[in-house]
Amino acid sequence: MTYANLITILRMATIPFFLMAMIYGHYTTGFFLFVGAGLGDALDGFLARYFRQKTSLGAFLDPMADKLMLTTAYVTLALPNIGLPHPIPVWLPILTICRDVVIVLIALLLHLHAGIQKFPPSWPGKCTTFFQIAFAVACLIENAFDLPELLVLGLQWTVVFFTTYSGLHYLWRVRHQISAPS
Question: Which residues span the domain enclosing 62?
Fold first, then answer.
């Protein structure tokens, strides 16, 4: 067990506390837990690279911790009955989760049926991740400290664009990857 892996596990352990803070109206605490998990992500990545502690466990857990925290934030921010001053539309987490599920299912099928094992991230996928995180942070700030709604709305539609575009781009890449000569 490396320090980087331990930090990743601690990041995952903060998810229930983030969820409870948001559900019980402690939006400032929720914001700081989310940001703390993000800083932990940067720290565990730095430690793994700097001290050459990259492990297969870390390669599996790190993206899982990121996706679990981000998905928890989106779902929590859309819950209609927790009294958030500024909830997000319910369809937005559905869109982001559906995109991820489709990508995972296609990757699994490609692996099982075509032996394709590498699915490197694309620039639209990286943009999607960046804007999804920025939107979550903006929504948490809006609920904890009151952020201008126009900024949050602009980020929301940017997330919609990049989530949709990156999903379609992924399908295009898969089509070309399958049809490329071996």
Answer: 3-179
